[in-house]
Amino acid sequence: MPRKYTRVSKRRVGYLVGMKTWTVKGALALVLGLACMNVLQAKEGMWIPTLLKVVEGDMQAMGLKLTAEDIYSINHSSLKDAVVHFNGGCTAEMVSAEGLLLTNHHCGYGQIQQHSTVENDLLTNGFWAMTREAELPNPDLTCTFIDRIEDVTLQLSRACVGLAGEAREKRMQEEMEAIVKRATAGKGLEGRVVAFDFGNSHYLITSRVFRDVRLVGAPPSAVGKFGGDTDNWVWPRHTGDFSAFRIYADADNNPADYSADNVPYAPVHHFPVNVDGVKDGDFTMVFGFPGRTEQYLTSDAVEHVITRLNPMRIAMRDEGLAVINAARASSDALRIAYAAKQSSVANAWKKWKGQNRGLTELHALDKKRALEARLKAATGSAVVEDLGALNAAYFPFLEARALFIELTYYGPDLLNYAHGFSGLIEGAVEGEKRDQLLAKLRANEAGFRKDFDAQVDEQLLGRLVDEYLEWIPVDLTPEGLRQEVSKAGGGPAWSAKVFGKSVFDNADAMKKLLASGNAKAWGKLVKDPVYIWIENLRAHYFAQIAPEYGRLRGEIELASGAYTKALRRAFPEEVFPVDANSTLRLTYGKVEGSAPYDGMQYNPLSTARGILQKHVPGDPDFDMPERLVELLEARDYGGYANEEGELVVCFTGSNHTTGGNSGSPALDAHGHLVGINFDRSWESTMSDILFDGSRCRNIMVDIRYVLWVMDVFAGAGHLVEEMTLVTQEGGTE
Ligand code: ASP
Fold first, then answer.
1. Which atom number of ligand 1 is nearest to the Cα of residue 232?
2. Is the pLDDT assigned to residue 21 strictly greater than 50?
3. pTM (two decimals)
């Protein structure tokens, strides 16, 4: 029998109008699950949506009222149709029939920053479009819906029968291209074949990519980033980490480039919002695009992470953050310019610290070694030794690559900016291509300058290059760099020289150059010290590091595939989940607290009381707008409070998540939205490498707090009205 939902207006929801009702399909519990796992334990695993039948019974035993087919179907609309890959890195969810989506504040942060100026500071003040016309376009922002996921492993292996080495690779590529072409041609779809489980299986994934996505609303950072770096990766949490966007489509509801004529996209499905929210022990699932886990690193690789890789990356970021944080504290303009960069640098920096601590506390090395020894005893397989030999050769290249990334992507911005001109400088592009490149560089110029400060960048280069030289394996150091820096008297002095003679950091000179398009003038930049330096560094990286890194990585993938295969074969009664790879996955668990340390017990729910307790006027992480303080002190919860009269702000669950799950819908047993996933607790930061069900908890912002901020705090109740609100009063099947 269908479950009935009553109108929200039965509740004391003072600020809402125009509520709708919603009825979920009948959901008979088909106990077909093949995986008999302990229902009381947090669940490891990010499940591929097409394979949910395997865990359907287990999910239903934990409380799910839907079937696997309700979650993912290619025959009719299902939950997957409301899940969005947001800009390729985060997740978002559709919450209205008119293209409205929710994601994290930290996922929309770059866009919010882009629209911010000192005079109109959306980061500080928040932003709410009160009309559709006021919504803000974001060139380059994309939203992707998954059309279909299909296992093509068999097809590929059939195509490659009898082939090996390069011939096999070539044939495999051809077959993948053919598969994608057949699935997408003339259908307005994009497609790719993705390797899972180190290439043990391959899936075709077709999708629809929308390109007109507008900013609709964001709370002030004092809500969306409340707690700042201090609270990041920490429970208890009181952050309203959400923002709202709207997808626009052409008149036929298809993806289109930005146009004022576009109309709000009508999604195949949008999530009803459960205004009753959650309580301790409720079933939850998180549906999104987890980025990357590394659960099959062998013990030597985990040891390398703990003793070398994380320490060097943390040290590089210590230097970068010292510069960026000081700059941001010195002026409003720099605070805005370096907001997104600071967040992205600080986020992984803090995670790696927690990861090292967690891996050590959980005796990760002993656990990994024990598993490896069990495999050896059971099968005699030499796969772990093979991996060990490969890893020993691979680690120096992995380090050199990580340091290159830290220096060029998380360090000074001028390096990649200068490299962007190489086609013009070297005269390598001509004719129409040259015009296109010039047009692109001209278009990007204002955006680049808005968030750039030459002094900050110069300091970043100076401090990072010193740190880089501390860690880079001696025989992989770019030739002459050590001597050059030491001759100048160290990184900062060397950097001052490099920047001092460059024109790339000079906005006026670059503007003139960009306007002129004069080939000769461009050619002269070949002698620019910043250009010379980044080109040399890149040349060194692509000649000395990337090829060997890539070759060894390929071999490690193959050996890791053999390792996971061997584990599954040797221990068929155990579950060895497939690593995350930025594809759509479902994870499930419960609203659940944890007790990570002796004498410590975390509740799963945090409330608005805690916001007031944390409030420190004038503190960059814990200050908040007066209006917020007043409303919370008055307990003006506008009908969004729970049965105890408290406004729930965040909650934790035992869902296995990772980066990329940021912004993912947290769903209840009926597939209704109860929160937005945004983080993990400090004691969970090692879960990408070693998941521990007793202490790994994901953190979600409660949907009631999201609605309260929109409706009561911001006065944007029209957005709440657009949603389909449901309650579960008296609902029985
Ligand atoms: N806060 C995280 C992130 O930045 C989400 C997570 O990793 O759990 O991606």
1. 1
2. no
3. 0.92
